[in-house]
Write a structure and sequence with these properties.
Elements lengths: L1 H19 L10 E5 L6 H17 L2 E4 L8 H14 L3 E4 L8 H9 L3 E5 L10 E4 L2 H15 L4 E7 L5 H14 L5 E9 L4 H12 L13 E3 L3 H13 L7 E5 L3 H8 L5 E4 L2 H16 L7 E3 L3 E3 L7 H7 L4 H4 L3
Parallel strand pairs: 1-2, 1-3, 3-4, 4-5, 5-11, 6-7, 6-8, 8-9, 9-10
Antiparallel strand pairs: 10-12
Helix pairs in contact: 2-10, 3-4, 5-6, 7-8
Length: 332
């Protein structure tokens, strides 16, 4: 009797395990896994919308899944591995770490699943195309614009994003290389990291600003640069809470409703804008073209522009500041 009960227990565990696994994809239709770095920022919602638009035009299926926060490397690795097991047709991946995702991408390639990298570079050759902003040039644009705002002189601080993120590392490098051309601009802080969320970025901003005050408690710096949506919003909150907003030249990256409002009110002087909807759109279009045997480019630059109070009502700039991603995601 004990043997029978043990056998029944083993069979029940096996049944529950098999039920918990996600079913393999339908091989009769092209199915693309789109894996972002995170799923909370508006940037990723725009990526998602662009991917949905491409899937509808091309009559393919996309599965959108990624980690909640942009510092969860293990979660993103697990997502990639799960899609390999399920046997998707292709993967569009925004790697949140330029080295940690090499192994799962290599495993996908060995399994016959092609990968397109978007947004942030991967230190690997196991992908068919890289669709992204030229982040170094975007950083240079930020540096040149802040230098212009400061008339080529003053003290500035940089709040970095996080180590391992190739896209923001390139923006930071481009910014600092551009600033280095101006001998009368001094970078007084460039070694603090905001981390993956607006809350960690807010705390890091408070820590960065605390020692940068004069005897009268006014800021001793003239300019600030932040390289992505979460660091820009975290810094904005810190400046607002300390009554510094609008009293220091501030150039950030990406957009959201609150950042656009701050730009309009002069609390942010410029935002370097990517085109995330186009990035998601071209990521899916590129992988599908590859799967259908069509020629594709190894690298695609989706561009960047400087949005400032004086040009934010330009139709092209306005479209990037206020992306209409909701209509593509209403049924998703």
């Amino acid at each position: 009797m004990r043997k029978i009960l043990s056998l029944l227990f083993i069979l029940s565990i096996a049944f529950l395990t098999s039920c918990s696994k996600q079913a393999p994809v339908d091989k009769s239709k092209i199915t693309i896994a789109v894996i972002p770095k995170g799923t909370t920022h508006e940037f990723w919602k725009s990526i998602h919308a662009g991917a949905v638009r491409a899937s509808q035009e091309l009559d393919v299926e996309i599965i959108w899944k990624g980690p909640l926060k942009e510092d969860d490397r293990e979660s993103q690795i697990t997502v990639v591995e799960d899609f390999i097991t399920r046997g998707v047709s292709g993967i569009v991946l925004a790697p949140l770490d330029n080295t940690a995702l090499r192994r799962p991408v290599s495993e996908a390639t060995r399994a016959g699943i092609s990968v397109v990298i978007i947004d942030s570079a991967l230190d690997s050759n196991d992908f068919v195309s890289f669709v992204s902003t030229d982040n170094y040039i975007g950083g240079q644009k930020a540096g040149e614009h802040l230098a212009k705002l400061l008339n080529g002189k003053g003290k500035i601080a940089v709040l970095r994003y996080q180590e391992g993120s190739a896209s923001t590392q390139q923006r930071e490098k481009g910014f600092l290389d551009a600033i280095a051309k101006y001998p009368d601009i001094q970078v007084v802080s460039a070694n603090q990291y905001g981390g993956a969320t607006t809350e960690t970025a807010y705390k890091a901003s408070e820590n960065l600003l605390a020692p940068l005050r004069n005897a009268d408690q006014a800021l001793s710096i003239d300019g600030i640069f932040t390289p992505n949506e979460s660091t820009t919003f975290g810094m904005l909150r810190a400046l607002q809470d300390n009554a510094f907003a609008g009293k220091v030249k501030f150039v950030g990256f990406d957009s959201s409703e609150m950042l656009v409002k701050a730009l309009k009110e002069g609390q942010i002087n410029a935002l370097i804008l990517q085109d995330p909807m186009n990035m998601g759109y071209l990521g899916v279009k590129t992988i599908v073209a590859h799967l259908r045997g069509e020629p594709i480019e190894k690298q695609i630059d989706t561009g960047s522009v400087v949005a400032a109070p004086e040009n934010m009502n330009d139709p092209h700039i306005d479209k990037l500041l206020n992306p209409d991603f909701a209509k593509w995601l209403t049924t998703k």
